[in-house]
Amino acid sequence: MWLNPEEVLLKNALKLWVTERSNDFFLLQRRRGHGEPTGRITGLLVGALDTVLDSNARVTPFRILLQVPSSQISWVIASGAAIEEVNKHWDWLVHNLLHSLSVFENKEDVASFVKGKVKGLIAEELRGRQAAQEDDPEKFREALLKFELHFGLPSSEKLVTYYSCCCWKGRVPRQGFLYLSINHMSFYSFLLGKEVKFVIPWAEMTRLERVSTGLMTEAIRVSTRQRQREFSMFLNRDEAFGVIGQLADIALRRLLDSEGLELDRVLQQPTRITKRILEEQAIREYVLALFRLPRAEKLHEVASCSLWTPHSRSHTAGTLYTTDSYLCFSSREEGSCILIIPLSEVLSIEKAESTSLLPNPVIVSVRTKKAFQLIELQDRNELVESLNSRLRSIQWKQSMFLHESEPVSYSTSMLICECSMEQVKERLWEDHFLEFGRGVHMFRTEKIQRLVAMGIPESLRGELWMTLSDASSELESHQGYYTSLVQKSMGHSSLATEEIERDLHRSLPDHPAFQNPTGIAALRRVLTAYAHRNPKIGYCQSMNILASVLLLYAKEEEAFWLLVAVCERMLPDYFNRRVIGAQVDQSVFEELIRERLPELAEHVPDLSSLSSVSLSWFLTLFLSVLPFHSAVCVVDCFFFHGIKAIFQLGLAALEANAAQLSASTDDGQALMILTRYFCNSDFFSDTDVPAVRHTNITDLINQSYEKFGDLSVRHIERLRCRHRIQVLQAHEDTAKENALRVVTPDVSMSPENLTDVYDLFKTEHFISLYWGDSSSVAAAEAAAWHHGESGCSYIERQYRLDRPQFKSLYGLLVPWPGGSNQHADTLANRTFTLLDQERKNLVTFREFAGWLDTLYCEELNEKIRLLYRLHIPPALTESEDDPSLMKSPLMSTNRPLYVNLPSGEVKDYQEQLKQMLQDLAKEKEKDVEKPLPLMNQREFIQFCKTLYGMFHGDPEENELFQAIATVTSLVLQIGEAGHRGRSSGSEVTSQEEGKEADPAQVAADDGSRGDASSTPESDWTVSYAQILASLLTEQALVQFFEQPLDLSAKIAEAKEKQYHQRAGLLTLQQRTS
């Protein structure tokens, strides 16, 4: 196979390799000892060396080297296990390259040419392998070539799939192809000699929806911040809609919220994404949501089968899903029969004899001496073998790492109510256990749904919550985990623990269990242990309310695992730093209102008011709005049905109040209507009649199941995928508004131009994430998050640019030509160093916007000041080839950290602090003239060189050159005169001059010069004021710097060039690396 060229030294390799074929440029070599008679000492020796040192060579005994005449360095370009394979590569090189290489005069050009060809062959092989995974490899390969040809994106922009479609412009359709890649959607059409093509980054998509018009039965509408595009297709419309939603969702989670949202490990590597992986991922997300499994579970098999259900005395048709640690079954009608079997509960999985009545049966035996029968399984042998392999692994881990543990015992309720209704419900549940089983692997049917709607008996509530959430399996497989977490976390102080302490006494303050130190201490331990377990979440408000309710019905350790199940599985992304999950579900809730309550949606056009009212319903599971005894019935439904129960109950509550809500005029009135409804006497009851307490909440729950029970988990997951796009983009808009609000007071450019500059700045960051190598991607992403003082709390997303990114934007936006490419690159490096005030090798948007504003909108003196600062330290380094900082310690050119006095004394701390506060106050005044260090002769020569480069190509070029020549002569004379004056002065005079000088300037100058002051050249100096005064004597220069510059046109030009220019640079870097 072809290899990415790698250098080798022939003099070291010849001892282990034998040359079989050779010419002027290539060598075909065989590993010494390979193919020789066995038992020879060379073969044994090389074999031993291969085993110890060089496993790659042992695997591939043949290789082809690229050699350049008169050079000791060669490159491995191909290898193979068989001589036939390597001979094919050799023949290709001889017939296609050998003749071409003879015309090259420069040996370095030969190496570059061959390496480029080999890398192209490798890329072709990769495309071929990707195409082979598709349903029609030849068509996909052809589409891939067209995609690369039409759009010119780097090879790392992997094509996922493509569709034939029409793109509509008003009422005019354009037939073409829609290409979906990992970072973009692209459209190309060529009809009647007219070409239409465009690229939409997923990061710019704000909304995805289906629309219907008179001409199109149904179309896919993709909205960005600038415009909308509509696509229609006769075939695969649903599939295309799903894939677009998935790719946009994955890209936005990866690009906009990689620190907050969980993303599957496969999807974190975009180059591995294929259409097949997207299909598998969609099924996995559905399975995790339906069975509420841990987010880390990997889906292995999906098989149609039938399950023997004793309660119906028949086999129920459905689907079997197997993951790392679970066997899950769901009937064809979602929710009518569900079975979850943790593999930790399984004793054996065996094949039974197949008959005509029981084809391909499999028996699953569990520890409670029960067995489950599955029939009609396709590929039964492979399935059973795979399951048994995972089962043996789990059983081995249990035997090695787990101690014998007693059966889990559930605490009795702290709210036990001795009443007939509780006893009736207990008997109903006991009967249900006898018929459907008890524990995590009981059958979950519509009957259990009715029992849950009545309210779980308080004596069984803790057990059933543990069972329905499968927290019991987590507890059993993590014996001692909670105790060790408590020991590690207690005593540690952090932002999370401070928030926990503040909220402890606000958690069910009226309940007696939390009016004493025992209950408060248990709540503290549970919340602190969870914050220690999951620092990404830490602690979020409303977790205290959930945890306190869980502690009322479960033991402390059980309450901890129930909290883990709620925060990490049942309400994913709800409790991260920006509560993204809750906001996504609010957006989904709005769409469900439009779908299920259209009349209410018609009368209340802005549904955001209703969704904002309902936010607490989702975050606290109605605990904050319903009376306690009614709210725990909602929690019962939540543990059985997950978030679906909250959606259904919310829709039922809105429907019950639809008439009043339709007549409401503002958000406050709607809030009062719903508050009165939940505080209605129907939901409260006399303590002497506890049965009435549950009556109406039970009716509401039953109504929600009757009217909205057809709401499926699959539908909710699809809506979440689409609405997450809108929520993330809304956060992105907020971050943009905040950034612009901070920068606007400091700049003079128009708001429109500032917005466009921000977009260019952000796009530059994204381009590195799209196509940069792994290290640059990681660095860029880490730089985008602004940390709080604690280092753990993420405050906001803030885009920053590193040096290569900045230089790319510099070349697009700088208003003057920089002369030669080398000098322009040098100026870009100096500008970056000057703007990087925190010395973190990153430039913020505020710093970038300030620099650009100076170039385009400031007065002449500010532009000259900027140019002056670019030619003194720290911007000007000791070696222009190495853009690192100077070796001597650098002080701020504006304000030193300490001030050196002429006598060598240093001001004490109090004086320094006083001086720093005074300087800070001065910096707030815009008109304060800040002293700049003097410029020596070497720096002034560089300054002149920059000015000459700026004037190149200007219509008044000759006049400007004459003007700058005059100014240069004048400044040189000024510097020389000053040098002679200082040289002839006495030592006393020098000391007096030192006392009169500004101490800040002296410190800055000393700190920035280092040892340079000892050289003769450093005695020749000029000041910024002298250079500015000299420039003002030439009218041509004044006009040049004062002429208005069109920033809008420059930004428009940069938008056109940015993508392809940056893509080309990254592609070039990848080829030469």
Q: Beta-sheet strand percentage?
A: 5-15%
CATH-derived topology of the domain at 132-275:
PH-domain like
Rg, alpha carbons: 36 Å
Question: In DSSP terms, counting alpha (H) and pi (I) runs of 4 or more, how many helices?
Answer: 43
The CATH C-level name of the domain at 132-275 is: Mainly Beta
Helix content: 40-55%
Global shape: globular
Key words describing this protein structure:
PH-domain like; disordered C terminus; single chain; 1073 residues; 26 strands; eight-stranded antiparallel β-sheet; alpha+beta
Task: Walk me through the structure.
Pfam families: GRAM, RabGAP-TBC. Residues 978-1017 are annotated as: Disordered. This protein is α+β, with helices and mostly antiparallel strands. Among the domains are: 2-125, no CATH class; 132-275, PH-domain like; 294-397, Pleckstrin-homology domain (PH domain)/Phosphotyrosine-binding domain (PTB) (PH-domain like, Roll); 470-570, putative rabgap domain of human tbc1 domain family member 14 like domains (Helicase, Ruva Protein, domain 3); 580-683 and 693-711, Orthogonal Bundle (Cyclin A, domain 1). The strands form six sheets. An eight-stranded antiparallel β-sheet has the order 17-18-19-13-14-15-16-20. Helix 30 runs parallel beside helix 43.
